[in-house]
Amino acid sequence: MTTAEENSPTKDLDLESLPPKERAGALIELLKTSVEPVSQNMGYKLGIVVITIVMIVLWFIYMGMIIGVGGAVFYHVAQHGWLLETPGGLWGIVAYALPIIIGPVLLLFMIKPIISKPVQSSPTRTLKRNQDPLLFIFIEQLCDAVGAPRPTSIKVNCDVNASASLHHGFWSLFSREVSLTIGMPLIAGLSLRQFGGVLAHEFGHFSQGAGMRLTFLVRLISHWFTRVVYERDQLDYRIDQIGNISTLLKVIIQIALKATRGILWCLMMIGNAVSGMMLRQMEYDADRYETRYFGSNTFATTLRRIRLLGVAYQQAMGDLGTFFEEDRLVDNFPQLVAHNMSNFTRE
User: Fold this and answer.
1) Total domain count for the chain?
2) Is the pLDDT of residue 68 over 70?
3) 96 within some domain
4) Spatial distance between the Cα atoms of 347 and 342, rounded to a whole number of angstroms
5) Report for 37-41, 111-115, 151-155, 223-227: range of highest mean pLDDT
6) Is 169 helix (H, G, I), strand (E, B) or coil?
């Protein structure tokens, strides 16, 4: 029985013994070999469609709840004016006024997640072919080998991650324009073979075609639910800082916030339960591209290496705070991450 490492097109290439430029050129030449595509059966494809529909329905359920709350408040104002005319009118006034106060506040906090902006992610820089020709050739050769469309744009940031996405987000659902984002610490901390494996994984997502587009919708909705449940925006912080607000209004606001997050949490958990297995399968299929091309041993060492880079990244972020207090700046953050990782003991 042969192993994935023995079937890997790169099994006989001693990359580490070559100088960096020759190493990249040798690997690019070798990448002209193609790998067997990962097949997906009809049941799996049908499951993706069904799960996508369920996630869209969950989002519309939340929209329906907003409309329902707004309609209930309007109906109460229009139809329950008779409460103001009841004997011993104080309780009638309270019964009429309380929904008018609570309803709009709840409605506001239900609408807030839709219009709130996410916390800004790591800034990216778009690479140009004339500045990094070798990287572009390397990526395009690997795309051809995996049978994936070539990325429309290649971006870099300082995260310990690489990602494949639609080039223009939602508006690229019906096109083949895809974008690749590469975390610079991966380049600083991985060997060329390991780095190529990470890219093969991302290009495995590119090759999933319609599946990638449907899972984009699933991830978009799932991440939105997760973000609005756990992420605090500027309005949340401003509410915490208001000191002169009445106790009653504070209680109403807190109830509205918890009720909104409770509803969103329930929808988020349903979405995670429905989509989790499919998203794991998509990642597994992308892993199979990486393993088929670079072998199982490289795949395993890359996973361990990325975990170490994650720890080194957290240490580097702490270093930035220390350096700032000392009026110093870091010349090369990815190299700082790699340096921190090189100081780890085996234990």
Assistant:
1) 1
2) yes
3) yes
4) 13
5) 151-155
6) helix
Domain limits at 109?
Answer: 42-115+232-267
* Rounded Cα–Cα distance for residues 47 and 53 (Å): 10
DSSP 8-state class, residue 117: P
CA distance 255 to 232: 16
- CA dist 233 and 255 (Å) reads 17
* 263-282 per-residue burial string, b: 16 or more CB within 10 A, e: under 16: bbbebbeebeebbeebeebb
Provide DSSP, 12-51.
Answer: T--GGGS-HHHHHHHHHHHTTS--PPPP--HHHHHHHHHH
Q: What was the pLDDT predicted at 186?
A: 92
Residue 61, in any domain of the structure: yes
Integer Rg of the chain from CA: 26
172: Cβ–Cβ under 8 A, 6 or more apart, which residues?
A: 166, 178
Q: Hey, how many other C-beta atoms are within 10 angstroms of the C-beta on 8?
A: 23
Asked if the structure places residue 169 within a domain, the reply is no
| Count of positions (residues) in the chain | 347
What's the one-letter identity of residue 11?
Answer: K
Closest CA to 135 of 199, 221, 52: 199
